[in-house]
C-alpha cells in the first residue's frame, strides 16, 4: 500500500460485504444502506449499520438481508406487529423518552423479540464518572421497559464492525431461542 495507512470509512466497511453478494442484490442493498446511514448521527453508527446489515442469523443461514426501517414512519406503527421480515434494523428508534442508536427486531410477527444497540463514542460516553452513571441509569430504565441493551465502544466498532454486528444479532438470536425454550 505504498506506506500509506488505509483509513476505514463507513462505506468501505459496507463495500467489503457488498462485493461478496450477487450483482442482482447489490443495488437494492446499497439503497438500504444509504437509507439507514441517512438516519445515523455519527460515522461510528454508520459503520455499525454496515456491520448489522452484513451479519445476522437470517443472513448467515439463507442470505436474507435485514430490512432497514425509516425511524419516523416506523415509530408511528406497532413494530411488534409489522411484517417486514425476520430481521429489522430501526436506526434512531424511540423508546419512551429515549432514542436508541438502533433497535433490532428478530422473528416472525407472532414471536418477535427485540434488543437495543448503543454505539458509544468517546466524547459522550464513559469519559467521566457522570457520563458512565448516566449510561448505566439509562440502561436500567430501558431494561425495565423491556429493552435489553447491547453497548459497544466506538473503538470496538472501528476495529471490526462485522464482529460487533454479529455480536448484536447473536444477542437477539439468544433471546429468541430462550423465548422458544431452547438454550439457557
Fold and architecture overview:
The chain is of the alpha/beta class and 184 residues long. It has one domain. It has helices at 10-18, 23-37, 43-53, 57-62, 71-75, 129-144, 154-159, 161-179; strands spanning 67-68, 87-95, 98-106, 113-120, 149-153. The protein has a five-stranded mixed beta sheet, sandwiched between helices. β1 (67-68), α5 (71-75) and β2 (87-95) form a beta-alpha-beta unit. α1 (10-18) packs parallel to α3 and α3 (43-53) crosses α8. The longest helix has 19 residues, at 161-179. The chain is globular, with a radius of gyration of 16 Å.
Topology:
Blueprint: H1 10-18, H2 23-37, H3 43-53, H4 57-62, E1 67-68, H5 71-75, E2 87-95, E3 98-106, E4 113-120, H6 129-144, E5 149-153, H7 154-159, H8 161-179
Parallel strand pairs: 1-2, 4-5
Antiparallel strand pairs: 2-3, 3-4
Helix pairs in contact: 1-3, 3-8
- Compressed to H and E, one letter per element, the order equals HHHHEHEEEHEHH
Number of strands: 5
- First and last CA, distance: 47 Å
Q: Beta fraction of the residues?
A: 15-25%
- Provide a count of the helices: 8
What is the total number of structural domains? 1
Structural class: alpha/beta
User: What average pLDDT do the residues reach?
Assistant: 77
Q: Strands of the biggest beta sheet: in what spatial order?
A: 1-2-3-4-5
> Radius of gyration over alpha carbons?
16 Å
- What does the largest sheet look like? 5 strands, mixed
Low-confidence stretches: 1-6
How does the overall form come out from the CA principal axes? globular
Helix content: 40-55%
Amino acid at each position: 500500500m505504498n506506506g500509506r495507512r488505509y483509513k476505514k470509512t463507513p462505506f468501505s466497511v459496507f463495500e467489503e460485504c457488498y462485493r461478496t453478494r450477487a450483482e442482482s442484490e447489490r443495488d437494492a442493498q446499497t439503497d438500504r444502506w444509504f437509507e439507514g446511514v441517512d438516519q445515523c448521527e455519527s460515522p461510528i453508527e454508520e459503520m455499525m449499520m454496515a456491520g448489522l446489515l452484513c451479519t445476522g442469523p437470517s443472513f448467515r443461514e439463507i442470505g436474507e438481508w435485514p430490512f432497514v426501517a425509516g425511524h419516523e414512519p416506523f415509530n408511528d406503527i406497532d413494530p411488534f406487529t409489522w411484517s417486514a421480515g425476520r430481521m429489522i434494523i430501526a436506526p434512531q428508534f424511540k423508546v419512551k423518552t429515549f432514542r436508541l442508536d438502533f433497535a433490532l427486531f428478530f422473528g416472525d410477527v407472532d414471536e418477535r423479540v427485540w434488543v437495543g444497540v448503543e454505539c458509544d463514542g468517546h466524547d459522550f460516553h464513559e469519559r467521566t464518572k457522570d457520563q458512565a452513571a448516566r449510561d448505566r441509569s439509562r440502561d436500567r430504565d430501558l431494561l425495565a421497559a423491556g429493552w435489553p441493551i447491547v453497548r459497544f465502544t466506538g473503538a470496538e466498532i472501528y476495529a471490526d464492525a462485522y464482529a460487533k454486528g454479529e455480536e448484536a444479532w447473536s444477542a437477539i438470536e439468544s433471546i429468541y431461542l430462550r423465548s422458544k425454550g431452547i438454550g439457557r
